[in-house]
Amino acid sequence: MSDSPAAPAVTDARRPFRSDVVTVEPFALLGTRCAEEHITFPARDLCPTCHRTDVSTVALAGTGTLHTFSEVHQAPPGVEVPYLLGWVDLVEGCRVLARIAGGDHQPRIGDPVRCRPTTFTAPDATTGVGFEFEVIRDAHR
Ligand SMILES: [Zn+2]
After folding, report:
1. What is the pLDDT of residues 87-141, one digit of tens each?
2. Mean pLDDT, residues 62-70
3. Which of 41, 83, 104, 122 has the fewest CB atoms in 10 Å of its CB?
4. Exposed, middle or buried, 37 (CB in 10 Å: 0-12/13-18/19+)?
5. Protein residues with C-beta less than 5 angstroms from the ion ligand 1
6. Which of 40, 84, 80 is nearest to 58 (CA)?
7. What is the CATH number of the domain that holds 99?
8. 3 within some domain
9. How far is the centre of ligand 1, averaged over its atoms, from the C-alpha of 59 (Å)?
């Protein structure tokens, strides 16, 4: 491709892209749990369900079910297309919008998925660890 972006000026490939969203070692999505046991992702200072502010940060299991997805064909320069973007229902009960790893297997609605780390590059060319979901193939029908 002739209009590829310049290689990113790298920072630390093991740094979370957003430290309030993921931890790197061990890798986990971060959410919050309120005193009423509502789980929210991403982490927030206020529970959007009961509006309590006594929330604590929790590491989420990172597994769930593919609610729905779409193939994206338009993206800013430097983002390879097409890619899959989907809603995942986490086992904790909240829904997450994220990239879905395609690979050689076309996902299906209802597939079991798990979160995995991936490296993202920000517009300022710094990099960090983010997340995406992949279908759990051995659990696939
Ligand atoms: Zn709550």
Report:
1. 999 999 999 999 999 767 789 999 999 999 998 777 777 888 999 999 998 754 5
2. 97
3. 104
4. exposed
5. 34, 36, 38, 47, 49-50
6. 40
7. 2.40.50
8. no
9. 17
